[in-house]
Amino acid sequence: TIDLTFQVPAGTIPGIYDFQACAFGDGVILACQDVRIVVAPPEGSVTGGGWILSPEGAYMPDLSATGKATFGFVSKYKKGKTIPDGSTEFQFHAAGLNFHSNTYDWLIVNQDGANAQFKGSGTVNGEAGYKFMIWASDGDPDTFRIKVWEEIGDYENIVYDNSLANPTFENGQPLGKGNIVIHSGK
Predict the structure, then answer these.
(1) How far is the C-alpha of 132 from the C-alpha of 148, rounded, in Å?
(2) Are 86 and 77 in contact (CB under 8 A)?
(3) What is the pLDDT of residues 131-180, one digit of tens each?
(4) CA-CA to 116 of 20 to 30 Å: which in 30, 88, 125, 139?
(5) Is 94 helix (H, G, I), strand (E, B) or coil?
(6) pTM score over 0.70
(7) Tens digit of each residue's pLDDT (9 = 90 or more) over 105-142
């Protein structure tokens, strides 16, 4: 077992940094671990509500499921806090999927206030142990993407991701109706 500590240099631009840390010995790789560091200023907020037309292929237990999916969320940094606060709900009615957040890990709002991304944990149909990430944009049109998964060791068992069905939705799918509002905090 090796414990590693990564220190982010002062002035690092906010963003998500993915890399691999590997241990070498006797000229061979002994082990590697994927690492994600999120650098986010503790400021900003995003709120949204509305619906999307969930595409076929988004809900892993039934790839043929399609129909209206509703959502509502608030994610914001309270003064002096480094972990965002808020709540998220996502319901895909045709599949009987009901996701509720219970904690947030981080929130990133880009400097021009047009895009936000946040991650946390929650429940699926009342069962704990799920993770989620949301990508939201306040543009023309507003867009929304949600990924819900269960971590099993190093494996992500994806339950729902509307970008899996359509790669053009990687950063969000246009809303059927609703509104997303992002504040950069500046």
Answers:
(1) 4
(2) no
(3) 999 999 999 999 999 999 999 888 899 999 999 888 888 889 999 999 99
(4) 125
(5) helix
(6) yes
(7) 989 887 677 899 999 999 999 999 999 999 999 999 99
